[in-house]
Amino acid sequence: MTSQVSSPAEQADEAVVGEQRKAAGTKDVRRLDRVIIRFAGDSGDGMQLTGDRFTSETASFGNDLSTLPNFPAEIRAPAGTLPGVSSFQLHFADHDILTPGDAPNVLVAMNPAALRANIGDLPRGAEIIVNTDEFTKRAMQKVGYSESPLEDGSLDGYSLHPVPLTTLTVEALKEFDLSRKEAERSKNMFALGLLSWMYHRPTEGTERFLASKFAKKPEIMKANLAAFRAGWNFGETTEDFAVSYEVAPAATAFPVGTYRNISGNLALSYGLITASRQADLPLYLGSYPITPASDILHELSKHKNFGVRTFQAEDEIAGIGAALGAAFGGSLAVTTTSGPGVALKSETIGLAVSLELPLLVIDIQRGGPSTGLPTKTEQADLLQAMFGRNGEAPVPIVAPRTPADCFDAALEAARIALTYRTPVMLLSDGYLANGSEPWRIPELDELPDLTVQFAQGPNHTLDDGTEVFWPYKRDPQTLARPWAVPGTPGLEHRIGGIEKQDGTGNISYDPANHDFMVRTRQAKIDGIDVPDIEVDDPHEARTLVLGWGSTYGPITAAVRRLRAAGESIAQAHLRHLNPFPKNLGTVLQRYDKVVIPEMNLGQLATLIRAKYLVDAHSYNQVNGMPFKAEQLATALKEAIDG
C-alpha cells in the first residue's frame, strides 16, 4: 500500500504509540494516503452491492474516490466458474485522484474463481482476504487448481488472511429463524463489516440502507445488520488483523460545495431532468432496455413529479420513433441505447436530421461488434456517430469525460439540440456509466438558461403581401428553423423524410434545391458555437496527448506521473467531436508529436488525420477495460523519447 511519508520524529512517535497500543492490547492504526480495494465473487455473492455500500460510506467520509464495477454479461453464469466472477474496485484517497487505480492493494476473494480471475492484477505484498469455506476440492478443480493455493506456497508473496466467512456468518445468525442457505447470503455483509472496520469507514449509512431495503422483511433486515456488525466485531477482536488503516478526508481536493457520490448514468439522468426544467419543456424518453444504458430508463421513470414521461418501447426503432414524435410535439425528447441500438435507430436519426427537430440520442458505448461484450467498455462508436446514416446527415457529437461530467454533458447536448434544432449524439460508455465519483451539486444560478421560443404566427410575407408560416425559414445566426407545436392555428405544415423545399418545406425533387439543403444542414452543424479546446502545457512541451471521452482520467493520471518524473508533455481533451473546436487545428500545429489514446483502433486519430493533415499517432486498446495509468505513462514516455 502507498503510505504518507513521515519525518524521522513522526516515525519515532508512531513507534512509541505502537508499543503503547501493544502493551494495552489495542491494535495498531496506520495512516495511508490512498487505498485500492477489489471485492470479487460469484454474481450471486452481492459484490456490486458490497462495493456500492463501501463506496457510499467512503464518499460520506469525504475521501476522493473512483470506482470500477466489472460483471459478467450473463444474468447468472455458472456458480464458481471464471466467467461468472463479478468484481467491484474502489480507489479512495486523501487527495485528488482520477482513476479506479491500476492494481488493487486489497483483494477480497469469496471463492477460488474470484482468486484465480484477479490474482494476476495484484502487486506483490498486496493483502488477500479469502473465504476459506469455499475452497473445496471440487470448487478449486472447477477453475484449474490441482492443489489449494492457500497451502501450496503460491501466495507467499502476498499478505494472506484466510477467513471462514461463510461459517462465521452462519454462526453469527444462528439465533435467527433462517435456513443455512439463507444465512449464507449475508456473508457479503460480514465482509463489508470487516473491511469497514479495517479502514475506519462510517457504518450509519449502511445500517440505514439495510433497514430501508429490507423494511418489508424484518427478519432478513435484522440478519444482514447482525452479519454486518459481526464482521466489524471480528476485525476488532481477531488476532489475524493486527492493523487497521486510516485514509483522511480529501479536505483540499474539492472546491467548496455540497457533494454526493454519483455514477455516470445517474448524472446523465439528473442532467436530462435539469435540462428539461431549464428549458421549461416536458422531458420524454422513448427507449428500449439495453446494457449498459438501461439504468437511465429506470431512473427517469421515478421522476414523474418533474414532468418526465418514460416509454419502454417494444424495440429500438419504436423507442426513437416515439421520441421523435415527442420532439415534434414540443418536448425535450431523448432516446437511450448502446451501439447495436444506434445501428437500428440510424434511419430515424436521419429523419430527425431532415425534419430538423431537437432530439438527444444517448449512446452508452460497449464492446462490439454485434452483441460483443455487453458489460465491458469501449469507445468504438465514434465513426458510427459521425457517419452511420445514409446520405449527408451530419449530427453534433458530445462526449463526457468523467462520471460526474455526464451531468454537464447532458446539459450541453440539450443546449445544442434546442438552439440549433438538430439531433445530438452523446457518447458515454460503460466505464463512465457504471463508475462513480464525488459530484458537486451545482447552485441554481450556475445552470444555463435553455428556454425556447416556439413559433407563434406567420414569419414570411409573400410577394402579394400575404403573411404565411414557412417551417424552414431559418434564423440567420444559427440556421435553425422555427419549432412549431402541432395544433397552433396557422402553423400547419408538412413533415416527412422526402427532401423539402427551402423555406416552404414543400416536397422538392429539384437538384439545385437538394444541393442547397444538404449544404445548409452541414453549415448549421459546422457553425455550432462550441468552446475552444483548452491545453494544459506548463512547460512548452513538444508532445501533445489528445483524448476524448472516458480516457480523461487515465491520460491525466499518466501525464501527472510523467511530469513528476521531470518529463515535459502537454494535454488536451475533446468534449465536442462534431464540430471540433475552432482552435483545434492551430493547437495541433504547435506540437511536433500528437498522441491519441483510444479504446478503439484509432477512430479519432482517423478524423484528426483527415481534417487537419496531422501525423497523429494512435495508442489503442480494445480489451473491454479502461486504460491503466502506468501503461499510458510508459507509452507516452516512448513517444516523447522516440
Written overview of the protein:
- By secondary structure, the chain is α/β, with parallel strands linked by helices.
- It is built from 21 helices and 24 strands.
- Helix 7 (187-198) packs across helix 9 and helix 18 packs across helix 21 (629-641).
- The longest helix has 20 residues, at 218-237.
- The chain starts with 7 loop residues before the first helix and ends with a helix.
- The relative contact order is 0.08.
- The model is unreliable at 1-24 (pLDDT under 50).
Give the overall average pLDDT: 94
- Order of strands, main sheet, comes to 11-10-12-13-15-14-22
Distance between the termini: 33 Å
Radius of gyration: 28 Å
Main beta-sheet strand count, sense and barrel state: 7 strands, mixed
Identify the overall geometry. Answer: globular
Strand content: 15-25%
Which regions contain 5 or more consecutive residues with pLDDT less than 50?
A: 1-24
Helix and strand composition category = alpha/beta
Helix tally equals 21
Q: Can you give the helix content as a percent range? A: 25-40%
Find the count of extended strands (DSSP E, 2+ residues).
24
